[in-house]
Each structure stands twice: as C-alpha cells, then as structure tokens.
Amino acid sequence: LKAGLNGERLEQKGKRQLEWAEAHMPVLMLIRRELEPERPLAGLRIGAVLHVTKETGVLVRTLKSLGASVTLAGSNPLSTQDEIVAALSQEGIHVFARHAETQEEYYSGLDAVIQSSPQIVMDDGADLHALIHAKKSEISVIGGTEETTTGVNRLRAMEREGVLRYPVIAVNDAHTKHLFDNRYGTGQSTVDGILRATNLLLAGKTCVVAGYGWVGRGIAARLRGMGAKVIVTETNPVKALEAAMEGFDVRRMEEAAASGDIFVTATGNRGIIREEHFALMKDGAVLANSGHFDVEVDVKTLRGVSKGSRVIRENLEEFTLMDGRRLYLIAEGRLANLGAAEGHPSEVMDMSFSNQALSVVHLKRFKMSPKVHSVPPEIDLRIASLKLEAMGIKIDSMTESQEEYTGSWEFGT
Amino acid sequence: LKAGLNGERLEQKGKRQLEWAEAHMPVLMLIRRELEPERPLAGLRIGAVLHVTKETGVLVRTLKSLGASVTLAGSNPLSTQDEIVAALSQEGIHVFARHAETQEEYYSGLDAVIQSSPQIVMDDGADLHALIHAKKSEISVIGGTEETTTGVNRLRAMEREGVLRYPVIAVNDAHTKHLFDNRYGTGQSTVDGILRATNLLLAGKTCVVAGYGWVGRGIAARLRGMGAKVIVTETNPVKALEAAMEGFDVRRMEEAAASGDIFVTATGNRGIIREEHFALMKDGAVLANSGHFDVEVDVKTLRGVSKGSRVIRENLEEFTLMDGRRLYLIAEGRLANLGAAEGHPSEVMDMSFSNQALSVVHLKRFKMSPKVHSVPPEIDLRIASLKLEAMGIKIDSMTESQEEYTGSWEFGT
Amino acid sequence: LKAGLNGERLEQKGKRQLEWAEAHMPVLMLIRRELEPERPLAGLRIGAVLHVTKETGVLVRTLKSLGASVTLAGSNPLSTQDEIVAALSQEGIHVFARHAETQEEYYSGLDAVIQSSPQIVMDDGADLHALIHAKKSEISVIGGTEETTTGVNRLRAMEREGVLRYPVIAVNDAHTKHLFDNRYGTGQSTVDGILRATNLLLAGKTCVVAGYGWVGRGIAARLRGMGAKVIVTETNPVKALEAAMEGFDVRRMEEAAASGDIFVTATGNRGIIREEHFALMKDGAVLANSGHFDVEVDVKTLRGVSKGSRVIRENLEEFTLMDGRRLYLIAEGRLANLGAAEGHPSEVMDMSFSNQALSVVHLKRFKMSPKVHSVPPEIDLRIASLKLEAMGIKIDSMTESQEEYTGSWEFGT
Amino acid sequence: LKAGLNGERLEQKGKRQLEWAEAHMPVLMLIRRELEPERPLAGLRIGAVLHVTKETGVLVRTLKSLGASVTLAGSNPLSTQDEIVAALSQEGIHVFARHAETQEEYYSGLDAVIQSSPQIVMDDGADLHALIHAKKSEISVIGGTEETTTGVNRLRAMEREGVLRYPVIAVNDAHTKHLFDNRYGTGQSTVDGILRATNLLLAGKTCVVAGYGWVGRGIAARLRGMGAKVIVTETNPVKALEAAMEGFDVRRMEEAAASGDIFVTATGNRGIIREEHFALMKDGAVLANSGHFDVEVDVKTLRGVSKGSRVIRENLEEFTLMDGRRLYLIAEGRLANLGAAEGHPSEVMDMSFSNQALSVVHLKRFKMSPKVHSVPPEIDLRIASLKLEAMGIKIDSMTESQEEYTGSWEFGT
Fold this sequence. Notes:
4 copies of one chain form a homotetramer. Chain A is of the alpha/beta class. Chain A has 17 helices and 15 strands. In chain A, α8 packs across α9 and α8 packs antiparallel against α15. The relative contact order of chain A is 0.13. Chains B and D meet through α10 of B and α10 of D.
C-alpha cells in the first residue's frame, strides 16, 4: 500500500474539498489559529487510524500546524476518499489508505502507523489500540483518543480486565461529540447513503432501525422526517420505552423482519440481522448498516443462502435467495453513510475533531493514568460555546441572583 | 386546615377517579399485588408532601396496602383535587390539603406531616426535607425520597454543604422517572393546561420555552407538535446547541420577549421572565410556568408594574400594564399543568410512583448513608420491563453470541 | 325551551368570554368596524342554527351591529355554553339553546328559528335547511349559508335532486374556512377534548383516525404531534395514499380495531365504528367522534351489547361489554371537541365567521340563483390578507416582471 | 446531437438501471402487461420531451410495447442520464439528448422531435408545445400531455388567448400526480440534490423555501424533517397562511435573505432571488432551484455582480462577490433534484407516468376538443388503487348503508 499514487488532478480536487471543509469547520479552525503560535505539539509523533475524509484532512492539517508529525491510515476500506489521500500526501502527511483497499492493505496500514512509533494514538473503533496492546507495541505511547461508541466500549472492557496500558480520552463521550455527531451526523448521512445507493422514495416506506442509542435515534428521527414509518428494535427496556413514547413502533426483529422495506442497524453488536430474518423478508428489502463494524448484518451468511449476487447500482449489491426473493445490501454491510455517501457533514465533525485536537493537547500537557478518561468538561463547554458563536446564536447567562438561587437549598415555595 | 370536610358526593367522585387512575397504572398495581402478602412496610410511618392528585392517591393506597400508615400534605396550593382528599380521608389516610389553600394552610400541612414523626419522608420539591432539617426534626427519619429535579438539586446542595442528615433516594434521577414523567408527562400536561386556561390556537403561534432540560424539551416538542413555532432560551451552551440542532430558534430572552405569543418557563431557576421582559412583550402575551416553584415568572413585579388585574377565565389572570398592554398569567405562575389541568397522566405517574414505592421498600430494607442516592438500576430496569409488558410491547434479548461480543474487546474489523 | 333563564353571574362570565373572543378575532372585528357605519344588514331577519359558543356570540353581535335582527338556536345539545346564552340574551338576541338540552328542546329551537321568518338562514350541518325545505317554509328566505362539510354535502345532494329552493353559500368551501377551521381548529380541539375527558397520555398510544379529509388530517397530525402512533382508515384511495405517504399506517377498520387505544371518527358518514369493531377492541379503548353528527360511532348498538354503563369522568361514559371488556365513549359520541372541550379556538373561527359575515352581506346585496355557491374568491383572499396582517406577517407581492411572466406562455428554457 | 454515442458498458449500466426502475414501478408495469396484448398505440408516432432518466425509460419502453414509435429529447441539459440514452437507443427508440448538452443541442433535440411528425406530443414544461405552436407544426398532432405545473400554466394561458390548437391532458393536475410527485418526489429529491452537492448538515440550518405550492410544501416538510428551521416566502395570502399554521416562519424574501443558509426556489416564476437579495446574503449561502425553469434564481445577474466563480464541488459553483462574500449555486440554477441528484424516485414516477401512459391511450381512443383537459377521474382513482395494492395496503369500502347515507340529504341530528 502506497500513498501518493494519485496524479495532480486528484490532488487539486482534494485541496478544493479541504477548502470547503475548512470553511465549514469554524471551531477547529479557530483552535488552530489560536494555538498555532505556541506550537503545543512540537515534535510529537501522532499515529491515527481514521476515516480518510475531507474533515479528517482538516484535523490532520491542524495537528501538523500545532507542530506534530502525523501518520494516518484509513479506518474503513470504503470510506477513504482518494483525493484527500492525494492532497494530504503532497503536504507531507504520511497517509496509508486507498478507497476499496483489501483487508491485507487495511492491516498493512495499521502496521505502518505502529511502525511510526506514535506517542499519541488516535483511533476510530479501537482496532489500532487493540493491535498495539496485542503486539505489546505501546512503549512509545503516552496516550490515546477514541472516536466511537464501539471503540470506547472495547477500551472499557480492556480497562475492566486490567490490560489497558496507556490513558485514553473517550472523545466519543464528550457531549459535543456524541449528542451531535452520532445523532445528527449519522442520522443525516445514513439517509444520504440510502438515497445515493437506492434512490428509493422513503415516504410511505416501512423502515426498521435496530438500536435506539444516539446513532439509532438520529437515524429513526431522520427517516421519519422523510415520511417513513419507523419500527425500532432494542434489547434495553428503557430505550425501548423511550422509542415507544416517541411514537415509534417497537417490536422484536423477528416481528419486524416481514414488514420492513429498508433495514438499518446501529447497535454496536453483531448478528443483528441474520439467517432467520432473511428468511422472513419481503422481496426487494434493502439492508444497511450504520454501526461501526460490518458485523451487524450477517453478510457472510447472506452470501451463503443466496443463489447469486450482482452489483445493480453503485454501492448496492443484489442477492437472489433460493426462493427467488431479492435482498439489496448497501456498501457491503459497512457503514452506509461513509460507504455510500460522504460521511458526516463537516459542521458536525467540526465539534468531534475539536474535541480530538484539544484532547491531544491535553494528553501532551498532563500526565494521566492508564484508564479511559472523559473529555474535560471545560473543553466540552468551550466547544459548545464556540460553535454557537460560529452559528450566530447568542444565549442567556445567569444573573447573579440566579447563580445564588442555583447554589442554594434554602429557597422554597 | 382540616381533612374530610367534603361530603359524600365529592368522595364518590374521588373514588371513581382513583379507579380510573388504577386502571392506567398497571405497573404500580402489579407491584402492589406482588408485595401485599409480605406487608414489607408493616408498622412504618410515612410522611409525604405530594401533589394530591388521583395518581398520588393510588401511590398512597399502595403504601397503605404494604403496611404503612401515611400522613399526606399537598405540595402545591393549586394542584390539590378535593375529591381525592375526600376519598383518601375516608379510607383512613391522614390528608392535610385543600385546593387553593392559603400559604398558611400549606405550611400547617407540612407541620402536620412533621408532627406525625415520619420514618420515611417523601417529598416533591424538597420543602419538607428542608423544613425538617431547619427544625432539626429528623430524629425519627430513616430515609427519604425526592420526586423533582428542583428538589434533587437542593438536596445535592445540602449534601455538598455537609448538612444532609438522612439518606434520600433521588427518584427523579431514575431513567424511568425523568425521561418519561419530566418529558412526556409535563410536555403533554403543560399543553393541556395552556389549552384549558386560554383555548388559544397554538398553530402559527410563536411560543417561547425557557429551559431545555427534560421538562423544557418535552414542552418544546409538544408545542411544535401542535403547530407552533418554538423559540428556546438556555444558559447551558450544550443544551442550547441541541435545541438549535432540533430546529428550534435559540435566542436570548431579551430577544425572544418581543416575538412571543406564549411563554413557558421550565428552568428550575428564578426571575426568568422579569420586568425588563414584560416591558418588551406584545399586547396579549400569555405567561405560564412549568417549573416546580412559582418563582420563574416574577409575578410580584408583574403585579407591581400593572394598573390592575382581573380573572378573565378560570386560571387566567389579565394584567393591564401602565401603557395599556395586557399580559395573561396562567394559574398564578404556579405549575400550569397542575394548576390549570390535571397534572401528568396516570400512565406516566405509574412509572414515577413505582420508583417511589420500590424506593421506600428499599430504604426500609437496607441501611443507607446520609447522602443523595440513585434509584438502584435493577429497580429502574424492572419498571421499564413491566411497563413494556403492560403496553403489550415485546423486545429482543441478546443472543449468547451477542452477549459475548458485548463483553469483549478483541473483535474488530 | 326559554332563553334568558340564567342569572346575573352567568351573564357576566359570558361577557368576559365574549371579550376574550373578540380580542382573538381581529379580522371579524375589523369587518365589523368597517361596515358598521353603512349598516348593510339593516332590517334583515337572520335565523341561525350554530354552536352557541363565545365565537358564535361575536359573529351574532357583528350581524346585529350591521343592522340585522338575529334568532339563534344551538346546533348541538352538548356544545352550547350557557353563559353565552345568558350574555347574548341580555343584549337582545333571541337565543334558544341550553347545554345538554333534550332532542325535543333541540327541535323546538329549530322551530323557533323558523317561526322568526328568517330572510337569511345560517346553518351548521344543514338540519335547518333540510327542515325548512321539508316544511316548505322557505317563503321568506332570500338565501343561506352553510358552515360544514357534512352540510354542504347534503345541500349538494338537494341541488342534484333539484329540490334546493334558495341560494346557499358554502362557507365551508372557502379556503380560509376549511383549510384552517377543519384542519387546525378541529385538530387541536379534538386533542383538547380527549385530554379533558380522559387525561390519558397520548405519547406511545395507538390512535385510529377514521377519515383523512381536512378534519381527519388535522386530527392525525396533532395526535402524532403529541407522540401517538396513528393509524388512518379511508375509503378513498387517493386520500389513503396521501396518508400512507405522510407516514401513517393505513389499514381497514377491522384490522385497526384490535390495535387502537383511542379511536376518532371524522368521515361525515355513519356506522364507521360498529358492532363488529366493538367485538375486537382492547379493554379500555376510548371512542371519540369529530364528525358533525353523532352517527359515526354506533352508540345505540354499543349500548345494546353492553351489560351496563356509567359516567366515570365528566363527558366520559364507561360501557362494560358482556365479556367484561370496558369501552369509553367521549361526549355521547357527539363532537368531542365541542362536547368535551370548548370547540375551535377563536383565532380559527375568526376566519370562518368572517366568511359567514361577508357571505350574508353578499347574499343581501346580490341576487343569486337557487344553487350551492362558492364564497367569492375576493372575499376569501381578503380574509387571508387581513389575517396575515393581524398576525404581523408580511408577504411578497409579485414584481411587474413576474406578473408578466405568470400571464405568458412564450417564455421557456 | 447524436444518439447512440455511448459504448457497450454505458448501455449495460443503463439496462440495469431500467431493471431497478421497473422493479419499483409496479403500476406502470401492470398497465403495460394488461394492455400489451391489444397494442392500443399500434402505429402511433409519439414525440416526447422529458427528463431522460431511468423512469422515463420505463415509460418509453411501455409506450413502445403498446405499439407506438417514440422520438425522445431531453427536457433539461443537466437531467439526462447518458446510460439511459445508450440503453434506449439500442432498443430502437430515437433519443436526442446528452448530459450537459448545450442550449443549441437542446433546441436541436426539440427540432428532431418535431421533425418526426408526432401524433401525440408529450411535454414537460411546455417548451415543445409552445415551439410547435410557434412553428405552426401542429398539423399531425391529435393531442398532447403535459407533466408540470409550469407547463400547464403556460397551456392555460394559450387556451385563454385562443391559440391552443390541439387537446392537451394536464397530467400534472391528476391527484395521483401532483399530490405525490410534486410533493413527496420533489421534496425528497431536492434534499438529496442539496446533500450530494454540498454535504452540509441540514440540522440547525436556516432554509428559505420560496413558494408554498405542492412542490414548495414538499421541500419545506422534508427540510424540517432533516432538522432545519424553515422560512417560507409566498405571494398568495392563503398559502402564506397555511405555511404559518404549519409552524413555518413566513416572511418576505428581503427579510429572509439575510438569515438564510440555504435557499430553494419553487415558485414557477422568475427573478425570485435577485440582485437586491444577493446583496443581503451571508457569506457561504447556498442557492438551489426546484422550479421547472432556471429563471428563479437570477444567475445571469449573479454572474455579473461577482468578481469570479469556480466549481468547488461537483454541481456546486462558488461565486465571489465584490465584497468577498461567497455564494454557492447548485446545478447552475437548474432543477437541483435532477441536476445534482437523480430526480424523483421511481415509485413516485410510477404514478405520474401511469397517468401519462393512460392519457396517451385516452387521446388515441377519444376525440377531444382543443383545450386543456383533466385526466379522467376514473384513471386517477384506478392508479391510486393499484398503487395501494402494490404497497400491500388494504382500505375500507363503504357499506351499503353508508353509500345510501352519502347520497342523501334527509338524515340529520
């Protein structure tokens, strides 16, 4: 796998995309401008495995501006945008990613990052963190960050088992990350991915959303907003109850399977849609995944129970089952929003990646224990305030009398 | 203040209301039936200050069935339903409450509860907890519960200052409480209160919701659901950003004041709508409060800056300002949903009060430290499961393979 | 049946209600002020059968101001507000209506109106028009108006059969009437009626709306806005398809009957919910009607198949079926929004009744043929413009160049 | 301009797209299968100017199956899909269209259609109808159809002026066309076009929709469904009032211009966004058009007042104004849904084009006068019924007793 394969024109397109993204990531750009003079990351080696999109490009450029040298690999074979690889490579960032790369290339990318002896490890899904720990290559690492719910869950499991050997800031858990990126970012970009892959009318369709976490509720809200009837499946009774109270139809997957026109998984778990469900589905049903890993729809089994398959539209594979029914899979069961569309809009990544950038600076500045840490609340609130400002929104502040009231327990009826 | 003033017919009406409520509180009824045989609260003296509604009646009946003796006072002068007082009194519960009682009567009710030497103290807003602590009357108390956000905030302030002298379970913080009661309960019942008090058309109106906590977002969602344009005011930047992303217009109150047709406060703070805002409002603007205490709209000042006032409809007072503009206040600035409507629907209180009942049993069974405690998660999840069952909703459970995946960090791309 | 039975206090309350309504009917008040000097209805006898609400009071006051003498009867036994009867009677309007009047009283009210030899007949449901034609009492009548879809349908049937003997302006068909009153007015006030009668939580409930005309779609939208899942039943395939595209679940009533928690009929037809459906319903199901006549839920049969019934809350009757299931009927199956709440908000009736007032003036001024006529479009547009102005909304007007473009067919790609 | 330039692979891709479309156009396919045996269009020459998309391909294939020979040109330079041109050409249909064709090519396409001496003229926007009339080439024409609101308006202007020389069926005015295609089709595909062109986050954005006809209300609903705040501009007061009652912010364009992040025009008129508005807009504002012609945004003037422009992303042109502000124009101001996305989903075109096919058969069968005619209601209802069936939706039919009630005027209270 080599970076820099692409010619001039790809690189130019990449630069224009980066410019467009920078224009829509005002918070990260402000942070860049503010911190640039002090170069707080001077000399730092950063290894990152992230979706190689225009927004990641803006993050990486920012880390470089603050003094770091960055080695970047792609976190998903389908999400890499080759023009961004081209543009970043030309700017001196070591990029190891290619759109539609093989599994082998994917792992060689991870290896390249590990070979760069990173001091800070930025990850999206925790594959890199897991690999470093498995290979006992954490010697140079002073800390890491993690972007996703799935990755944070894995890191917490590592912490529980006592095997986590460096501090990781759970960027995902910042309010300004998961409340926005997971909900509004994935919500919109999943709809976008479905439309680009299928061009189906959502109005009047029955859509089944598996999982009612932040990602799932974003997707459910947007599908409804496009006129679909939405069925939600859940295993957690509190979340199931919330979905019901929002007016969604809550059912078990085995009951939903026969009614759905379009299925979207967002659980962070595996085997959500599996053989027993394929057996019940309508001819023409569409399957998409918006969870981090491509394990939510059991694609391997789907392939096994099919007579054959073909690509009928870009990013849309048609499987013909033994009884003649056809099921359609978006982006190979990988993240539909990144595989079939462009991933989260820049404005959302602006907040997530501002958390990333400030978390890296924090890890550099402060010694932290080998645990999963929250993003410091002052970072979270500051990003929210900057974002509001960038959107031209002014909010109230408490009066002195209100501050006093808030802190007190003696006032009453 | 005396209980039992009401004649037979009031009592009959109360009994029918209790029957209606019991039919819509299946979880609490199930808990009652399950625990009744063991009488886990036998001999326990409970002192409660709660809104004396039909749902509270069902809770109190339940506590009595489990063996407790209960003394009950009203937590808000306008929320007491006299027929419920009549019905409960006749069943041997000591009730000290009257609709539209005076401030003096309110405090004499609290006193009566304290005089009963309660072992468990159930409160709604923490006035009773504060009073017991102020009077150093906590000698008999083994623990308490608290129903509201406002009350929990006050108790945490007490905990921080080191003055809290018995354990309190923050029922409000249970998922099955605040995610439902605060959001869906207050959302609907506030709209209900506004409609009963004004009969105005909400479609096309500009409504200003102050506060985007769980209560505020419930109200904002429902007002939008009725066709209103909604402006949200907040002091917390993360919540403000969420409101903006939900498509609400986020502004400062001083900017919203001139545009609003209807204002609703839900902040838990005081002086949210005050003199400087009255000065900017349109002729005909309507003011309502859904926060716990009647301090969010500065009613005293409103009265001061008015030429005069009169009751124009039930629960609706018209204030004529010096310049002739008229402002309309619902239910004296007290909780509009309880003052002008019937408060939360039974189905919502079913969950909140199941948490209350099980928390009281928990306090009786286990010795706890003098802190603010969460509702034990197993109680929370159980209530959610029972509620789903009562609604006829079945949900998925994880397969073994999924359980394994969830606990592991080694699976990856 | 006698008018004026009510004492002073009722009358005062009525006057305050009329004042509140006038403050929220700016268009009708403007029309009143504009036309009053010329007294265009001087000497005209008007006979009206309308819901005797505060808004009708404002209309009748307006007609009187323009010179007419008005005799008014109630169009529904449950919708009459006695305080309005009291207030209007005292102002010299002949009112024949009483809340909860008997069928006999209802018909004697219609008779009284006919006895007044009206020149203009204003009706709501066309019972009066039908009775006049049946009795051949149309001798004095120069024209009429009709307020409802149901009434207009009946009048068109009369026109088709060649029996209509005077011109009737179909006020219902004005854009500024049915697009607003039927949709937003009934939508909101039906929800209001359900809440007042039951205080049930709508979030998470399954509501079945029969009929997807303007009334039905208003109700469906508002129930969804309150968090309910909505099932729509229809007989017209185009409307059914629209409902499906709006994300509603479209089914046959026999399929919906077993799932519904709350049923609302809005079809203008009879026997929509009948014995075969009662047989399928869940214990606790609630039945409401928002169609003009009380024939949509087959109440007579419901009574027949029940062991017994009792009033469990105001405007809510509990029927216990032979197998023990209980069904709850709102407002005797009469218009739930008028029987259990206060009917349409004043702001909506402002437009409907401005159409009524200007249509009466039009009938007086111009000789029209004995047909069902539309409200003249210039009246419709003028009311819309005045309403926008009253709401403080300014809209664009076409530029000259745009006017030219609109009228032409020669411009193209 | 030549058809058939494209190589084998393009043609294969086109065939797969047509297959996908046919799978999602069940009504048109059923009509094809039903009528094919009788070949009702045998020998008929049809000239059509339509967007050359996969759905048009299915229509044209259907017309051919019924016996017609078809000459097809593209109705918009940006909407033509070259793979469809390739696939259709290979099947013996005469196609004159090319993606991004020049204005000259566009008109030569129209000429080619006229040269084919069509007996039936199918048009989209009425350019072909206008040209035929201008050239007095209507000699062979027995009738035509028209797909769009814009086109029907132009044809009605021709009818009013007495110059229309053959009958035209206004397919646009069928309920099963404009209630679905204009509203749900354009609503979704415009959002799709905006996302593909910009990848901006819609949540929290202020979107301005000009025009609240069926197209505009579809767009407004979908943008809101994606989390945007929506401002509507209108010139018709009734529509403006409807928009306000739906909770939209209704303003004049000159007031909206400074607040909007994204503008979409859907008025059917010209100069909706013009120099005076460009002057007020925020840096970064995005302009899109979903009206038929590219005259709604005054692109020529925009170009004139700009220092320069460049394509920053596919279908997105950046204009830099003299003061440095940048405005972004989607798809050159042509239909954004067709230029930047794939146009209406097949399921919507299924209904529109079923109306087209049956209207052509109707024109062939019945002699009609040279006017603008409605689609016969039985066609409209039949298409709705077939569509419901295809969606698996069953609806009620009236009982005998209900039929009787509907036809009668004698039933009453």
